[in-house]
C-alpha cells in the first residue's frame, strides 16, 4: 500500500507545496487537502498504516515528524512545534502516541 493508491498525484503535490515553508503545517488543512473526510473507514485505516512505519498500531512523534517525507522523500521534516501540535490535537488519552481510534476522531473533528 502506498500513497499513490489513496491519493491523486496532483493532490499530493499541491499539499506538499502548501506546507513547504517551515512551520506552515496545519493538520486541519492537511486533512482537508487530502480529502480525508470523504475517505472510507477502510481507506483511513490504510492511510494510518502507511504513516505508522514501524507498524505498531500507533503514530509516535518520530513518525509524525517524517510524515511529509512519506509522500515524497524530498519533503522537509515537520518541526518539533508542528509535530507537537499534531500530537497534542490527536492524542486524546495523553499516552504520547496516536492510535487509530484517536486518528479517526481527529479527522472527523477537523
Ligand atoms: Ca508506530
Ligand atoms: Ca493516545
Automatic annotation (TrEMBL):
Task performed by this protein: In muscle, parvalbumin is thought to be involved in relaxation after contraction. It binds two calcium ions.
The protein, known as: Parvalbumin
Domain of life of the organism encoding this protein: Eukaryota
Domain EF-hand residue range list: 39-74, 78-110
Database matches in CDD domains: EFh_parvalbumin_alpha
InterPro entries noted in UniProt: EF-hand-dom_pair, EF_Hand_1_Ca_BS, EF_hand_dom, Parvalbumin
Any Pfam family: EF-hand_7
Organism: Pantherophis guttatus (Corn snake)
SMART domains: EFh (SM00054)
Keywords recorded for this protein, A-Z: Calcium, Metal-binding, Repeat
Family named by the database record: Belongs to the parvalbumin family.
Binding positions (Ca(2+) 1): 52, 54, 58, 63
SUPFAM superfamilies on file: EF-hand
GO cellular component, one term: cytoplasm
Amino-acid positions noted as binding Ca(2+) 2 in the UniProt annotation, renumbered to this chain: 91, 93, 95, 97, 102
GO molecular function: calcium ion binding
